[in-house]
Amino acid sequence: MSERIRWLDGWRGLVCCLMVFYHLVYDLIIFGWQPYSITQQWPLFLLQRFIALSFIFLSGVSARFTRSNLRRALITAGAGLLVMAGGAVAGEPILFGILQFLSVAMAAYHFIGKYTDRVPDRAAPWLWGALYLVTRVISYTTYVEPTWLFWLGLRAPGFQSSDWVPVLPNIFMFLLGAWFGGRLLAAPAESRLRTLGAPEGLARIGRHTLIVYLVHQPVLYGACWVIHRMLG
Questions:
Q1: CA 210 vs CA 63, 82, 101, 169, 178: distances in Å
Q2: How far apart are CA 146 and CA 174, in angstroms?
Q3: Is the dihedral of CA 207, 209, 211, 215 positive or negative?
Q4: How far apart are CA 174 and CA 228, in angstroms?
Q5: Which helix (H) or strand (E) segment is 67 a member of?
Q6: What DSSP designation does 121 have?
Q7: How far is the first Cα of the chain from the last one, in angstroms, to the nearest whole number?
Q8: Fewer CB within 10 A of the terminal residue: the chain, N end or C end?
Q9: How many Cα atoms within 13 Å fall on the side-chain side of residue 191?
Q10: Distances (CA, A) of 213 to 83, 91, 204, 231
Q11: By the 8 A CB rule, do 156 and 145 touch?
């Protein structure tokens, strides 16, 4: 972003910390220190949804501030390839995870943002919110025979991915974030919408989200592996 809004960085930093905790829980499951059933309980499920939707929404907000969404898309796509490779090595295949989705959303916004931004301010949040809810129901309840539509949000029976964030419904959460980013841009520089604070530690983490995303899981998994070996 060309200018920093501290509370957005703080929100992003908080989500990064929650993501680290969430993935630590999964590593504890992998090494047999927690039952898999814990992932089916509501607290962890809601935490996972909050993390994913926050990253998507905040990425949409940033789309209104960045100098080049296409450049962001290419960097994020490269990071996504690294994560896919790491998942394959660990035996946890990732088919269209959150980094793949974000790179597609950023690239798409680079080309169509000038059109989606024309939706009237009063209508945009209702439109994007309604489309998100409708397409989410379709995506999570509909199965199709073609196996290659998973990236769009249509799964074939038996489809599996350790991290699946398809275009539908998530592109509409991204556009909702872009709408909100536009409201931030239009707000006076001295307004509370722009000047709310956040703890410096969280804000600092939030300014390095991609690095945290790439590094945290190898570190967590490696630490758990070492402890597991020590305990024999």
A1: 15, 12, 14, 23, 19
A2: 26
A3: positive
A4: 40
A5: none
A6: T
A7: 47
A8: C
A9: 9
A10: 9, 19, 14, 28
A11: yes
DSSP string, 10-66: HHHHHHHHHHHHHHHHHHHHHTTSS-GGGGGSHHHHHHHHHHHHHHHHHHHHHTTT-
13, 198 in Cβ contact below 8 A? yes
Burial environment of residue 170 by CB neighbours within 10 A (0 to 12, 13 to 18, 19 or more): buried
d(CA 166, CA 184): 27
Dist CA 53 CA 173 (whole Å)? 7
The residue written with tokens 């539908």 in the block is: 168
Q: What is the residue-level pLDDT of the chain in tens, covering all 232 positions?
A: 446 899 999 999 999 999 999 999 999 998 999 998 898 899 999 999 999 999 999 999 999 999 999 999 999 999 999 999 988 887 889 999 999 999 999 999 999 999 999 999 999 999 999 999 999 999 999 999 999 999 999 999 999 998 999 999 999 999 999 999 999 999 998 898 889 989 999 999 999 999 999 999 999 999 999 999 998 7
Query: What is the distance between the alpha carbons of residues 203 and 9, in angstroms, rounded to a whole number?
Result: 5
The string of DSSP codes covering 148-187 is GGTTTT-BPTT---SS---HHHHHHHHHHHHHHHHHHHHS
Q: What's the CA gap between 230 and 211, in Å, rounded?
A: 29
Q: Where are the domains of the chain?
A: 6-231
